[in-house]
Amino acid sequence: MRLWTLHPQYLDPQGLVALWREALLARAVLRGQTKGYRHHPQLHRFNALPAPRSAINSYLAAVLAEAQARGYAFDSSKVGPSRITVSIASTTGQMEHEWRHLMAKLKARSPELHQRWRKLAAPRPHPLFEVADGPVEPWERAP
Could you state, in order of their start, the residue ranges of all structural domains in the chain? Predict the structure, then answer.
């Protein structure tokens, strides 16, 4: 499961669809609707919030907005209510780690997008995240 800290605009079509599915899975986990993935490291930052289910709905809403901007037909009824406005703290180290990871994926899978984004010095975060200086998150798996 990869719930990107990066803005979904950088993902190729396969990556955006995968993110949608994985975020829906994360929501099911946070709702207690599945027994698997309950301790997945990507969920730590949502579980640390006062309203994790509302936060994952906000996360999904941004992914949906990107899909709609591209003309994709994601099912908007799958995005539940977001009753709070919340930011999740993340770090520059995490963003850099994810950017390298994404660039490797794009180089192999979508060379044209790799060319488009490879010289971008400071990618934007997903709208849910507030980024401050710091290392890679401790829950992140080593490369």
Answer: 8-132
Q: Nearest CA to 139 among 89, 104, 64, 86?
A: 89
**For residue 28, what is the enclosing H or E element?**
helix 13-30
Question: What SS3 class is residue 48?
Answer: coil
What pTM does this model have?
0.92
What is the spatial distance between Cα 28 and Cα 58, in angstroms, rounded to a whole number? 14
| Residue with the two structure tokens 């990871």 | 101
Q: 7, 127 in Cβ contact below 8 A?
A: yes
pLDDT, tens only, 4-36: 999 999 999 999 999 999 999 999 999 999 888
Across-strand partners of 88? 129
